[in-house]
Design brief:
By secondary structure, this protein is mainly alpha-helical. It has one domain (2-75). It contains four helices and no strands. It starts with a helix and ends in an 8-residue tail after the last helix. It comes from Brassicogethes aeneus. This is Eclosion hormone. It holds the Pfam family Eclosion.
């Protein structure tokens, strides 16, 4: 009985960890999290919603990097 429950607990933990890793590896999720990070960094100069919409539209194929101006240029604006 003890061996069976330990194996079951081990399998459940493995499944849980694997599911978290798969969620983190989702390119759309990574893209949207990067948009949020850039919004925090650049504030009103960064169009976070436009960035997130692009993540969904392109299915996470274009991932913004807040330190790479070329990757975030479409989402920057002049704050007036």
């Amino acid at each position: 009985m003890i061996c069976v429950s330990r194996n079951l607990i081990g399998a459940a933990l493995l499944l849980l960890v694997t599911s978290f890793l798969l969620i983190d590896a989702n390119p759309i999720g990574v893209c949207i999290r990067n948009c949020a990070q850039c919004k925090k960094m650049f504030g009103p100069y960064f169009e976070g919603q436009l960035c997130a919409d692009a993540c969904v539209k392109f299915k996470g194929k274009i991932i913004p990097d807040c330190e790479d101006i070329a990757s975030i240029a479409p989402f920057l604006n002049k704050y007036e």
